[in-house]
């Protein structure tokens, strides 16, 4: 029997919030599911209400149709936030992706690593039973053919057309986790980025060995990576504003460069960037740092560094997400007139960052090549 590895400390049972069904994702739908549902009164009802139940994908398949992509909502989501396919036809008739959510499986030479998506409310809140309790259910879904990402033993993607072995990656990850426990995630991710970039420049990629020359707590590239992450964080703050016109953005850029007050009425914030970072450091307490650690543990466990994109691209996101989460947690806290951030502020910020920068996020594929062009030139 295939070995399934579950992460420690992560719980999940659906709280039926429907939030995953109100996000703009391409959710593939099997042709037989389309056939069954379109022939059922439920499908006919949804087509009458929305104009379509499913859309055609570029590769000739089907996906869930969103009537208004600006306000995405699955046409099968009921007002009470329950799935009407689940309620009227049964769980087995749902598209496999919907049955599988929020689980993510990564098949490696050491067995299958089970992860979960932090786009799910219950996962963010750590609500429910330990993930191990879902093992039988997951095995049933695996037999039905849910999606599993495969990592090949001798083709672990590190950079553009650059690969290493699974054994090398495991040793690299072990040292990554050891350092993360001592010096924190962000510095470790920055160090790993530089090492991975150096390794890809060599004839034979050897990730694990690269750690040897790097002292604990050493800031890589004299802080250039950290500066780039700071600049990117500010760029994201601007990108997420409702108004991104030049009249709105140029004064913010000017204020940022001169160290003057940033006017962000969306968060009732008027103060310098450094004042915001100071506020953030005070507002984001130990409990939230522990929550962020749980998020990082699950990312490492599910092999997020190797999924969808090569290691180098994913490391940028691992370094950037905690910054974005702390910053937006501070914004939401400040807007609510509080000095200490609460879990709700944090969950809201984490959802935002997962949506844009997570494994399935909208931005990594756009940001990572730009980052890597800088990095590969700098090392
Ligand atoms: S987002 Fe998670 S908790 Fe909410 S309905 Fe979907 S699976 Fe359930």
Description:
The model has no long low-confidence stretch (mean pLDDT 95). The protein is of the alpha+beta class and 379 residues long. It is 51% helix and 11% strand. It folds into two domains: 4-150, no CATH class; 220-378, no CATH class. Strands 1-7-6-9 form a four-stranded mixed beta sheet, with helices on one face. A three-stranded antiparallel beta sheet has the order 3-5-4. β10 (156-159) and β11 (162-164) form a beta hairpin. The chain is globular. The chain has helices spanning 31-38, 41-50, 84-88, 96-100, 121-124, 135-144, 166-183, 185-201, 207-210, 224-239, 246-258, 273-283, 286-301, 311-335, 343-357, 364-378; strands at 4-5, 11-12, 28-29, 54-56, 62-64, 103-108, 111-116, 129-130, 148-150, 156-159, 162-164, 262-264, 269-271. Bound molecules: iron/sulfur cluster. Iron/sulfur cluster is lined by residues 14-20, 101-102, 120-122.
The number of distinct helices, counting runs of at least 4 residues, comes to: 16
- Quaternary structure state of the chains depicted: single chain
Strand content: 5-15%
Q: List the ions, cofactors and other small molecules found in this model.
A: iron/sulfur cluster
Number of strands: 13
Radius of gyration: 22 Å
Features of the shown structure:
single chain, 379 residues, alpha+beta, 2 domains, four-stranded mixed sheet, three-stranded antiparallel sheet, 16 helices, 51% helix, binds iron/sulfur cluster
């Amino acid at each position: 029997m295939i070995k399934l590895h579950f992460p420690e400390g992560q719980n999940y049972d659906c709280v039926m919030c429907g939030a995953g069904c109100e996000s703009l994702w391409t959710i593939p739908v099997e042709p037989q599911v389309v056939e069954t549902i379109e022939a059922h009164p439920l499908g006919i009802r949804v087509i009458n209400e929305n104009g379509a139940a499913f859309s055609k994908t570029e590769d000739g398949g089907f996906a869930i149709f969103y009537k208004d992509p600006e306000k995405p909502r699955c046409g099968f989501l009921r007002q009470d936030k329950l799935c009407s396919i689940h309620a009227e036809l049964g769980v087995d008739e749902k598209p496999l992706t919907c049955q599988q959510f929020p689980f993510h499986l990564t098949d490696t030479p050491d067995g299958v690593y089970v992860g979960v998506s932090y786009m799910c409310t219950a996962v963010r809140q750590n609500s429910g039973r330990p993930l191990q309790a879902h093992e039988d259910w997951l095995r049933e879904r695996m037999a039905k053919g849910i999606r599993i990402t495969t990592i090949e033993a001798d083709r672990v993607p590190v950079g553009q057309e650059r690969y290493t072995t699974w054994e090398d990656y495991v040793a690299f990850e072990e040292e990554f986790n050891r350092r993360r426990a001592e010096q924190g995630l962000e510095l470790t991710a920055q160090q790993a980025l530089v090492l991975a970039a150096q390794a890809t420049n060599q004839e034979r990629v050897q990730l694990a060995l690269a750690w040897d020359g790097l002292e604990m707590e050493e800031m890589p590239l004299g802080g250039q990576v950290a500066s780039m992450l700071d600049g990117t964080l500010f760029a994201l703050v601007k990108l997420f504003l409702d108004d991104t016109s030049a009249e709105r953005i140029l004064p913010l850029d000017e204020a940022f460069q001169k160290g003057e007050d940033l006017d962000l009425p969306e968060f009732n914030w008027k103060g310098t960037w450094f004042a915001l970072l100071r506020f953030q450091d005070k507002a984001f307490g130990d409990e939230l740092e522990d929550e962020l650690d749980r998020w990082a543990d699950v990312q490492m466990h599910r092999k997020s560094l190797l999924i969808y994109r090569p290691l180098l691209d994913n490391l940028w996101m691992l370094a950037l997400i905690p910054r974005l989460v702390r910053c937006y947690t501070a914004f939401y806290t400040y807007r609510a007139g509080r000095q200490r951030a609460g879990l709700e502020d944090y969950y809201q910020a984490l959802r935002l960052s997962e949506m844009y920068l997570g494994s399935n996020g909208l931005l990594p594929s756009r940001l990572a090549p730009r980052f890597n062009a800088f990095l590969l030139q700098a090392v």
